Amino acid sequence: MNSFSVVIITLNEQDNIARCLNSVSQIADEIVIVDANSTDRTKEIAQSFDVKFYERAWEGFSIAKNFGNNQCTKDWILSIDADEALSEELTHSIKELKKNPIDADLITLNRLTNYCGHWVHYCGWYPDRKRR
After folding, report:
1. How far apart are alpha carbons 46 and 20 in whole angstroms?
2. Is the pLDDT reported for residue 114 higher than 70?
């Protein structure tokens, strides 16, 4: 069975982090959070989950995500943002992938964007394919 690490970078994400963590908790074998020294309740909320929490000065997206990736110990790494959450369909697909491994180095996911409270299914915004 494949195992999954989830990497999340944060900065003052108290309004989003619980939703994000709840969505990945069904598929994650480990969760790594790289926080850019949040001044809100992000750390407190995140640590109420089973996570590895690292605080670092902000050096940019790539550096933070790569640091998080280097802390991972599982077969696969899923990198998402704190304001993102997995859909039921994606959760199911990842559970299937965990049971039935594939020969691949990376997976492309379809992202559905919410803009000003509306899900955007048109104008080229969906599917917003992301390599994660």
Report:
1. 10
2. no
Residues 12 and 45: beta-carbon distance below 8 Å:
no
H-run or E-run covering 90: helix 88-99
Kindly state the tokens that stand for 97. Answer: 């992938």
Rounded CA gap, 119 and 100, in Å? 31
The answer to whether the predicted template modeling score (pTM) of the entire model surpasses 0.70 is: yes
Is 58 or 121 the better-scoring residue by pLDDT? 58
CB-based contact 107:126 (threshold 8 Å): no
Of the candidates 39, 75, 66, 35, the one whose C-alpha atom is nearest the C-alpha of residue 51 is: 35
Binning pLDDT at 50, 70 and 90, where does residue 113 land? low
